[in-house]
Amino acid sequence: MDLFPLWNSLRIAGISTLIIFFAGIFSAYYIAKAPRALKGVLDVVLTLPLVLPPTVVGYLLLRLLGPKRLIGAWFLSVFGLKLTMTWWSAIFATTVVIFPLMYRTARGAFEAFDETLAYSAQSIGLSNTYIFWRIRMPYCKQGILAGTVLSFARALGEYGATSMIAGYTPGRTATISTTVYQLWRTNDDAGAFRWVLVNLAISFVVLLAVNMLEKKQRQTGPLRKAGA
Amino acid sequence: MSIYADIEKTLGDFRLKVKLEAGDEVLALLGASGCGKSMTLKCIAGIVRPDRGRIEVDGRVLFDSEKHIDLSPQQRRTGLMFQNYALFPNMTVLQNIRAGARREKDSAAKERKIQEIMDSFGLAELSAHYPWQLSGGQQQRTALARLLVSGPDILLLDEPFSALDSHLRFRLERELAEVIRDFGRTVILVSHDRDEVFRLSDKIAVMSEGGIETFGEKTAVFARPATRSAAILTGCKNISPIKKLGQRRLLALDWGMELETAEDIGDARYLGIRMHDLCFGPGENAFFCRLVSETENPFSYTLMFVNGSGSPVGLETDKSVWESLRCGETYIRLPPEKCVLLK
Questions:
Q1: A-interface mutation test, from B75, B132, B133, B167, most A Cβ less than 10 A away
Q2: In whole angstroms, what is the distance from residue B242 CA to residue B107 CA?
Q3: Contact A157, A198 (CB under 8 A)
Q4: How far is CA A191 from the centre of its chain?
Q5: Helix (H, G, I), strand (E, B) or coil at B106
Q6: Which residues 6+ apart lie within 8 Å of B166 measured at CB?
Q7: Could you report the per-residue pLDDT of B19-55, keeping only the tens digit for each?
Q8: Residues in chain A within 8 Å Cβ distance of B89
Q9: CB-based burial, A146-177: b 16+ in 10 Å, e otherwise
Q10: I want to staple A162 with a disulfide (CB 3.0 to 4.6 A). Which of A36, A90, B102, B298 is the partner?
Q11: Among the residues of chain A, which ranges form H helices?
């Protein structure tokens, strides 16, 4: 069994998770502080990929990144780089699709943060950077970790947008999900089933991890109230 | 003068307009919830930015809307303590206090300060505990230690006892009184508990609907609350609107009683008298009243009496007094010098 699709899926999911980890956290943090009207608009725009069919996301990405389109053509002329139909093209697709998951979980975690902690910290002279990394992030750690793991799992399973922007080339752009479809389409039922099992196993482990994180938060998390 | 604040802030329908000053003493902001007392602290600490005004601590300008001065909360050195103590949940007691000492750059001096404060607050044995492992009292001590080690110029304490059980309050109040005395500089204490305020403060500002109604030495404020809401907040339970009959004669409309007062009525609109200031027996301002209810307290009785068809007036008396007197009708007297005229 050629394991390339597994490796390819993992690296695509890994890289896009890394990107949305920072992008999601920072947009959640700054949008939470934005004026109400701007917040409402940004919130809708950033959550949109969560409800759009992946094929629509794929279509929109192709409109932007295709070799004859705005960004794609520019990259091609300046760097001689084609943004579609390579293995890393799928990163664009998965990043856009999983961004709302990270953004929303991070925002939920930040909204649960007790702001009096930040005010007290400012009052005793702690810098805003210190407060963010040493107080706010640890407080929201479990929520953010759960969001990250969930995003990773979703990235691993991305099919629609990926197949449109990266296509299916065995050994080059094939991912687990596109391989399953390809094998099933070509009547290799046993082959497809093997990859289905691989995918099930990974998803199972990931969801188990999310559940354990949430349980841990309930037991020892900062939300626990101390007795007087 | 150690603090001067004159600020205005509008937030939706709510308008805060406060002017206060205090020296090296304890100033209490007394008021019902939502009156703007916590917001006043937040303005001084730099968490909420006033629309207009000026804030000075020890002559240092923290905020001045005209000169466009607005120091960050970190630069202000205003030690603010919240009612939930806001200990960092991911840090131990020691780490919390160490976080408070980060302004001190000399590491030897820093460690010495941390050690001193841990010892004087009796926290040495708890240093490895996390906040959720501490009792309410220990949390308060940790919060105070963390605040003091940061070297504030002023202490701002927001409802310091509201998160505690009543049996703990009294002991912690004594502890806090000591901390305040050792601090020796301006302390602003926010509370809705009149007893707590009376015991801990030197000056009182009674707040209502975003403004200061009465401001003065604590004994004066309790003896002469000046306004109806200040009278209610300082624990006066008998209050009636009045009709002026003469310079020192009025009709208390609710109670149906014509009363003499010790002071000129002027433009007062209400009369207040504390329940323990009423007494039994005939004399000036005495009425033959009917008992309508009797409530037993741990060490006293609260009795409601009615004069004719008026609404009841409350009287609080020692158990022994009422137990020897108990009757359905008797003379109730409202001594003129105890009648407080209110606006």
A1: B132
A2: 66
A3: no
A4: 28
A5: coil
A6: none
A7: 999 999 999 999 988 899 999 999 999 999 999 999 9
A8: 117, 139, 222
A9: bbbbbbbbbbbbbbbbbbbbbbbeeeebbbbb
A10: A90
A11: 4-33, 36-51, 54-65, 70-79, 89-111, 115-123, 128-130, 137-139, 141-157, 160-165, 176-185, 189-220
B205 forms beta bridges with B29, B215
Mean pLDDT value across chain A: 88
Q: Which residue has the tokens 């998160």?
A: B163
**pLDDT number for residue A220:** 53
Return the beta strands (E) in A5-110 as ranges.
none
- Inter-chain residue contact A125 with B150, CB threshold 8 Å: yes
Please give the C-alpha separations between residue B93 and each of A126, A228, B134, B146, in angstroms, as whole numbers.
17, 16, 9, 9
Overall fold of domain A4-174: MetI-like fold (1.10.3720)
- Report pLDDT digits (tens) over A96-133: 999 999 999 999 888 889 999 999 999 999 999 999 99
**Residue carrying the six token digits 């007494």:** B279
pTM of the complete model beyond 0.90: no
Q: What is the dihedral of CA B60, B62, B68, B71, to 10 degrees?
A: 120
Amino acid occupying residue A114? D
Query: Does residue A125 belong to the interface with chain B, where contact is any CB pair within 8 Å?
Result: yes
